[in-house]
Prior knowledge:
Layout: E1 2-8, E2 11-18, E3 29-35, H1 45-55, E4 59-63, H2 81-97, E5 101-111, H3 113-124, E6 128-134, H4 139-145, H5 157-172, E7 179-180, H6 193-202, E8 216-217, H7 218-225, H8 234-237, E9 242-247, H9 253-262, E10 267-272, H10 279-282, H11 284-303
Parallel strand pairs: 3-4, 3-5, 5-6, 6-9, 9-10
Antiparallel strand pairs: 1-2, 2-4, 7-8
Amino acid sequence: xxxxxxxxxxxxxxxxxxxxxxxxxxxxxxxxxxxxxxxxxxxxxxxxxxxxxxxxxxxxxxxxxxxxxxxxxxxxxxxxxxxxxxxxxxxxxxxxxxxxxxxxxxxxxxxxxxxxxxxxxxxxxxxxxxxxxxxxxxxxxxxxxxxxxxxxxxxxxxxxxxxxxxxxxxxxxxxxxxxxxxxxxxxxxxxxxxxxxxxxxxxxxxxxxxxxxxxxxxxxxxxxxxxxxxxxxxxxxxxxxxxxxxxxxxxxxxxxxxxxxxxxxxxxxxxxxxxxxxxxxxxxxxxxxxxxxxxxxxxxxxxxxxxxxx
Length: 310
């Protein structure tokens, strides 16, 4: 693994580049861009998947989103879906520029919100030749309709009213910027199981990282998130093959099944029995199941090898 940086407009992005053990610097390798969840950093789930893909012969890049982690951009702790999608394109720019990467054999793998961002990027960037999502989340739809997708989009209105009041307080009254947590720091009996497990992942030594602060700017982030739809026009614009992996017990499963139902390009849906949303972040049984599906999928679509070689 090599720590690298790459440009994204005026922002300097920070990433970790993983290469295979038998890496040939004079070769022409397939590459996978790995996109981390909302609130995550490259040292967590994204880095784990990148390292496992490198073990299977791929060059893999895990990177911090702009405004987050070790990447630049101000204000920090901004979750901007449109910027996150541009991050994916900038990461493709970087791996495509490497002498040892075949620019025609680039894929993307996204976890949670990173899955939604990867889908949205692939719809407008056909340099991405194949795509895998793991526990995919369409962040805008999830924020509006709730974790289980049972609310209407109009359920977002009270939060948007609170956002307007907070923005006035900051702009007119000099109030300090407000932040929201990605995962509940103090879950209760009404907290979805997946988000309780997310707290155990992000807020304990299990996966805690000093660059993952479990906070994002309220006014600047929510106004962008609530109007974002990662799957908008996916029926018509996503032409690449896609593998969708999710757990049968994940509260977020509905977003993966919706994506699968709407996509018209070659597609596979793998629902792993017993898996929750967070199972695919670091639980070996489930991470290995996801990788065991992704590797032959990428080999088939990026290298032309038969899928059964995975």
